[in-house]
């Protein structure tokens, strides 16, 4: 066959029309997913309502739903007929090393997007905003920071309530005794058994712990907002192609009504397994994040 | 690799990261030495109980060992810290929760001490039983009371024999002390987790904390080896092998 300029141009044109996305060579995580036909998603066993295990077999939650949207979008972009999604449980301690060594491709939990962490990993556009506040016994009479003077205050390893309290205007005038739980369950137990007068933590986690307790009416979330932090979906660092794929997928959800349905599903309706309702209205801070998606760390 | 991270200021307000490690080491050493003191004292008593002629006392000693050896250490600490104050009379429980000085440290020392005591007890009784029966018989025949037989004949020999297994227990108590994290003591593993959480520098952090544990265990090991040589009596079975 003689290759005429006309035929050549037709071929080139045909190639462009047929496979526009492959114009750019695949690299990093996208290439890995395309080659292996699988994507490994890091999930948490007990980070309600973001990411948790249901009936010992299914991972569910707000973050997991968002990640599934990302996975669908990646599958579409790569034109894969089948993509196997593997859910790999991680903990606060293992999530960063497992991301760095390539075990997991996405982490869908309740991970704060911080500047420190951005030195090690990257984050998709922020998906949530938490405020650090305190849970107290409803009958304790504690209404704010000023009432905590001289009292024991518990928080979970890795966060320091003392620091948040001292940074606050009222905090400089009061003195608290710090206690530490090894996880949120233990911290909450210290509050429940009166070893601590207050449990300082992200408000969503506190709401979930209270909703799960024997007598939710015994507890209240009170006082000043001590700090605020964005949550993000974690990715490997220096992988602009995958980062763009994730951000595009997330932005599409953020800009549509979908995100409001998703929020209502996990934070304002009964959630499995016990049918608890966290009853948390969406904060202005989170609305602002959805209107102007960004990956700024705290 | 980012080893310089230890010189960086930690966001906890307690100074640079190396200071967190030092602080953690302080609590680990305190709880381990405190626990070891209780373990030696209680363990020796229980160990002796298991070798006396009185059946009831032997049974009591055995019961102690079985109870404390068969419950996981973390569960034991949990029982002491969270459950005990709830089952005691309310006033006592409240005192334990709110007025006991250094509640985490005190509970960890007692919990770790009583747990390790069960293990020390087994070794003490094994040491006593390994001595020829004629030793005690001869002592009694010479007019020693049973207490004197134990204090002057059996225990000095038994303790020399069991120095090597006691060394292992002494080293173990440093490692086991990490479970005190479960009741909120800010020991080494607590500080390690805190540093991992804040700095996100994982490998280097774990490497350095591992080295701290190795150093502590090695100090104990060398001290016990010195003790073994220092107390040996040439010609006796506990001669130290050299």
UniProtKB/TrEMBL annotation, chain A:
The keyword Transport applies. One of its GO terms (cellular component) is outer membrane-bounded periplasmic space. Coiled coil: none annotated. One of its GO terms (biological process) is amino acid transport. The keyword Transport applies. Residues 38-270 form the Solute-binding protein family 3/N-terminal domain. Keywords: Signal, Transport. InterPro entries: Bact_solute-bind_prot3 (IPR051455), Solute-binding_3/MltF_N (IPR001638). It comes from the Bacteria. Residues 1-23 form the signal peptide. Belongs to the bacterial solute-binding protein 3 family. This is Transporter substrate-binding domain-containing protein. It comes from Leeia aquatica.
């Amino acid at each position: 066959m003689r290759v005429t300029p006309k035929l050549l141009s037709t071929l080139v044109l045909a190639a462009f029309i047929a496979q526009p996305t492959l114009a750019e060579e695949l690299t990093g995580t996208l290439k890995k997913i395309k080659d292996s036909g699988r994507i490994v998603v890091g999930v948490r066993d007990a980070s309600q309502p973001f990411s948790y295990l249901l009936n010992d077999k299914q991972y569910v939650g707000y973050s997991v739903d968002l990640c599934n949207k990302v996975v669908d979008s990646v599958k579409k972009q790569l034109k894969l007929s089948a993509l196997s999604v593997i859910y790999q449980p991680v903990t606060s301690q293992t999530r960063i090393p497992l991301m760095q060594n390539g075990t997991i491709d996405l982490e869908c939990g309740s991970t704060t997007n911080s500047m420190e962490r951005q030195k090690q990993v990257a984050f998709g556009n922020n998906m949530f905003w938490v405020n650090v506040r305190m849970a107290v016994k409803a009958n304790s009479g504690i209404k704010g920071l000023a009432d905590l003077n001289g009292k024991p205050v518990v928080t979970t390893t890795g966060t320091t309530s003392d620091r948040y309290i001292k940074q606050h205007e009222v905090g400089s005038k009061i003195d608290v005794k710090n206690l530490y739980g090894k996880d949120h369950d233990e911290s909450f137990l210290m509050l429940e058994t009166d070893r601590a007068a207050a449990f300082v933590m992200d408000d969503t986690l506190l709401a979930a712990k209270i909703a799960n307790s024997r007598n939710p009416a015994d507890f209240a979330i009170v006082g000043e907002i001590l700090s605020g932090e964005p949550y993000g979906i974690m990715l490997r660092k220096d992988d602009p192609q995958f980062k763009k794929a994730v951000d595009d997928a997330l932005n599409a959800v953020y800009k549509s009504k979908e995100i409001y349905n998703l929020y209502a599903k996990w934070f304002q309706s009964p959630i499995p397994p016990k049918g608890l309702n966290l009853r948390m209205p969406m904060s202005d801070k989170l609305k602002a994040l959805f209107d102007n998606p960004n990956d700024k760390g705290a | 690799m980012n080893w310089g991270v230890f010189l960086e200021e930690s966001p906890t307000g307690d100074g640079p990261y190396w200071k967190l490690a030092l602080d953690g080491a302080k609590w680990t050493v305190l709880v381990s030495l405190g626990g070891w003191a209780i373990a030696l004292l209680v363990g020796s008593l229980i160990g002796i109980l298991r070798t006396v002629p009185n059946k009831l006392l032997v049974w009591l000693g055995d019961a102690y060992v079985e109870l404390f050896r068969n419950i996981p250490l973390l569960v034991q600490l949990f029982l002491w810290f969270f459950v005990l104050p709830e089952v005691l009379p309310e006033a006592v429980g409240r005192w334990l929760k709110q007025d006991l000085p250094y509640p985490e440290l005190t509970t960890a020392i007692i919990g770790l001490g009583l747990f390790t005591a069960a293990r020390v007890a087994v070794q003490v009784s094994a040491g006593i039983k390994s001595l020829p029966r004629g030793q005690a018989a001869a002592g009694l025949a010479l007019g020693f009371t049973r207490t004197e037989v134990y204090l002057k004949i059996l225990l000095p020999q038994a303790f020399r024999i069991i120095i090597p297994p006691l060394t292992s227990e002494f080293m173990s108590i440093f490692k086991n002390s990490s479970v005190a994290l479960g009741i909120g003591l800010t020991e080494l593993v607590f500080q390690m987790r805190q540093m991992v959480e804040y700095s996100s520098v994982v490998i280097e952090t774990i490497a350095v904390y591992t080295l701290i544990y190795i150093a502590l265990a090695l100090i104990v090991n060398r001290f016990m080896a010195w003790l073994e040589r220092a107390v040996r009596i040439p010609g006796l079975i506990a001669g130290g092998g050299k």
